[in-house]
Queue: 3 jobs
Job 1
Amino acid sequence: MERPLFPSTLLSLLLLALMSLGLMSWAWTAPSCTIGDSSLWPNISYYIPFCPLAPGLHLFASCFNVNDLAQTLREVPQDTEVLCLQDALEPLKSLNTLSFHGSCLNCSQNVQLPISLGRLTLRHSCLTELKELQGLFPNLVSGSSPATSPSPRTSFLEVLDLSANLQLSRLGGRALHGLQLHSLRLDGTPLNALDLLGSDLLHLDSLYLVGTGAEKRPGNVTGYFELRALDLGRNQTQNLEDGDLLSFRSLELLSLHAMAFSYIPPIF
């Protein structure tokens, strides 16, 4: 059973009670936000399940039903170490680009992507499987998690950038079933490009695999998706064979920069 969010009035009373019992040093509430010392967390974390707290951090702020993101950020102390925002992106009806750098998101945070979103970046994250994206962003793919996706969106992205995710090496099944995606960037990410054949991606036009350490050519991937652009720069592939020309026939752009080829077909 889903845990209900604590009403702000009752939460305020709980904070006062804990303070009177000496179970915490200080805490206060702002509009739609609870702010306090981490010593409070064991007592109320059950009622704010979408906000995990990392060990060793002291000041947290948990905000929900955020309608004015700028105003909410003004209410939060500048020295806040953990900021959890629920439903914060939904009011941003015109948001086109969203980036997470160095963030270890988890499924409990339930990040609902705006309908207008066209570019999603998740770099230097804790992703290990591509399928985890469905849990992190429940409405990324239509119908993937209807119970937790109150804001359905068209399953389309112009760009999905998963570069520099050093732990991302597995697909995890039909990871992105039905997602229409024009451009996928996996630069510096060890995911095998051939695994994308089982991802159920639709309409992939461009694939960037710069510096992934790949030793094999993703010819099957190129032909399967009928890619228009492919970047294989700074990889360890040493040869291009005559047969590669057939799998590359759909390409309009092929980048092979910083590659130490020992053989290239003369008719390439």
Job 2
Amino acid sequence: MKVKFLGSFFEEFPPPDYPEVVFVGRSNVGKSSLLNMVVGSKVAKVSKTPGRTRAVNYFLLDKKLYLVDVPGYGYAKVGREEMEKWRKMMERYFKERKDNIKMAFLLIDAVAGVQPLDEQMIEWFEYYGIPFTVVITKIDKASQSEIAKTLKQVKRYVGDGAIVLSSAKEGKGKKELLSRILN
């Protein structure tokens, strides 16, 4: 698998020459880590500090697909003005690219569970007709009861087939995610 970083975009996005797979979720849910795990190399910058990803980052996979790492929503160590700027950028991204998005991976932390902003994101995907899969992340850090609780929450919104359990640290879920990306 060959992955090339195309750049960080704030205003204009790359031409919609390839279908897009976008990684979406709350700040610090593991979007960049998951992207790195899926492609097998550290192409996306990772940080323990919420809000590290501040632009829409595009990666070209095998010259046939864009992988898109977007800023997280919710808590981040930035001011309200910066958060509002991100919100507008994300809204513009989804409105402009909705027809180009092949799949959105909505990442939900196994310990934190479904939060109100996650519910809003699901509603947004449904409104815009964007296909999505919920990826329950950081299962290596969660107890079985926390995972079960989060699974139960997620199943209220999506069927069993639209859920992947993952751990970027342990490589869990990679096969299922690659299958959804490449097919």
Job 3
Amino acid sequence: MVHSTEVLHIYRRILRAITYLPDSSARIYVHNEVVQRFRRHRPWTSPLHIISNRVRKARAFAGCFERAAHGSSEDLQRVLMHTYGRAGARRRELVKELLRPDESILPKDDTALQQLIENPKAQEPVDGKPSPKVTAFIASQRRNHPKESDRPKIRQLEKPQKTIWDREPVAKLQHSRWLKWWAQVLEKLLPPVPKVEWDRLRDLSLGKIPLDEFPMRRSRPVENTEQQGDMVYRYLQLKLRSEAAQLEGATFDTTRGLQVQTKTREESLGENHEVLLPRARRRLYAHIWRLTPTMSQDETTKVWTVVWGTGKSLIAAGTLTTPSASDMELFEGMENLPEPHQQIVQPHRASGAQVEQYAVKRQQWEEAQLAKNV
């Protein structure tokens, strides 16, 4: 039997751990999500085994939030993935927002509106005909599928022309195939986020805006005792606090006395936990940014445009850099460098003349290297 006091302790533990997350958006989103879920399941009307599973999951989430607040990269990535809609409930909400009908599908007159009210499922995508907005996004994700994504790539719908008996497939079979494909698409979608949120991810990953610092740990409250009510004891406390304020890094604790902090903030934060450096955190934001698109529609042409995050690396963004002087030393002694579009023939796949030409170039290169060393 799960006692209500245990649930209350877990609830307070989660809320306390959320306040130490190093991301302001994550603190707001996770706090609202936790409060909403606990209030939703507050009435004890579910069976006992379901309540036990919920308590077990809540305890696991509390540990995840605490480790993320202490700098664990895996747990922090999990929290940020849920915050920015790459997994969890936020992703499902963004998928619903993506599937919401746009202006091209809305009823044009009163007759169409009455038909929509009488048959609300008429606007749902049927037999491979989703809205233009969803079609444009699916095509964009298929072209720009992130390599880091845990979700597989969206495949095209295969429509068989003939059955194994060389007959036309019936409509029911085609519809069932489309329903199965549509369910897989909904599971693989990486829905777009608002432009403001996408810009924040870009700026955090590229270093245009500073990262949120890890919040300082709050000290535990001290219980009031009869000794603290003594005027002499209060005077001594006030005297020690005033002297400690004049020393750099000195604090006065009523239970431990005068303390002098000799470690930096990062050292004291990571004394018993992993310290996540700012560079590693920016790589983490860049990883999430590559999985996050944003979508907008041109007001004139009504064409949907999808923009995906590229990351900080120029090679990952599709831009090749020019070779440096140290790279060009590898090709020193060669008369003509192979063009990028030309295929380099391997010796074991080449003809006799090509192998001989390759051997001559190899010998010339070795002689040039030997002369250079001499």
